[in-house]
Amino acid sequence: MGLAAALAAGACSPALDWREVRPAGSGVLAMFPCKPQINTRPATPSEPSAMGLAECKAADLSFSLAWAELPDPQMVGPALLQMRQSMAAKLQASNGPTQALQVPGMTPSVEAQQQVLTAADQQARIAVFSRGLRVYQLVMLGKKGGGEAWDSFLASVKLED
After folding, report:
1. CA nearest 155: which of 118, 127, 120?
2. Containing domain of residue 137, as a range?
3. Which of 90, 100, 127, 150 could be 138's S-S partner, Cβ–Cβ 3.0 to 4.6 Å?
4. For the whole prediction, is pTM greater than 0.70?
5. How are beta strands 28-32 and 158-159 bridged, if at all?
6. How many domains does one find in the chain?
7. Helix (DSSP H) and strand (DSSP E) numbers for the chain
8. Which of 134, 92, 136, 143 is nearest to 114 (CA)?
C-alpha cells in the first residue's frame, strides 16, 4: 500500500507519467515520471568501474539514477560520501541536514543518506546507497519544491537479486 499511495500522491501532476524502468546492469527497478535515456560504460583497464546513468525531464524537474560497480569494498563508503559532496559543489549549494536512508535490500552503511541541497535558483534532492560493491545515486533537480514527486521516485526503488 505504501508504494501505491506514494505513486498516487506523486501522480497528481498530469506532466508526470510514471513508468517502471529496469536499466540493464543496474540491479535496480525504479519508477520514473518520464521515459529515461540510459547510458552505460563498461569497466576498462584504465577505468575499473562499470557505470550507468538513467535520466529524464518532466514538469520542470530532472530525475536521474546513476550506478557504479566498484572494485574494492573499502571504496564504497567514501564513494557514497563523495557523491553527495560532488553534487553540492557542482550546484554551489548549501547542504541541508542529512537523513539516514533505508532502501529494501541495500547493504547497511552510515553513508547511505538522503539530503536536500539548495542553490540560488534550484534545489536538488539526493539519495545515495549501495548493495555489495555497487553504489547508487538518485537525484531530482529543479526549482524548489517537488516533494511529492521525490517521495514517489525514492519509494519506488527496488534492488533486485
Report:
1. 127
2. 2-159
3. 127
4. yes
5. antiparallel
6. 1
7. 3, 10
8. 136
Q: Which of 2, 1, 36 is nearest to 17 (CA)?
A: 36
Contact, 18 vs 10, CB < 8 A?
A: yes
The answer to whether 125 and 146 are in contact (CB under 8 A) is yes
pLDDT tens sequence for the chain (161 residues): 444 444 444 444 456 889 999 998 899 999 999 999 999 988 778 777 789 999 999 989 999 999 999 999 999 999 999 999 999 999 999 888 899 999 999 999 999 999 999 988 889 999 999 999 999 999 999 987 778 899 999 999 999 87
Torsion angle of the four alpha carbons 10, 145, 27, 111, in this order, in degrees rounded to the nearest 10: -140
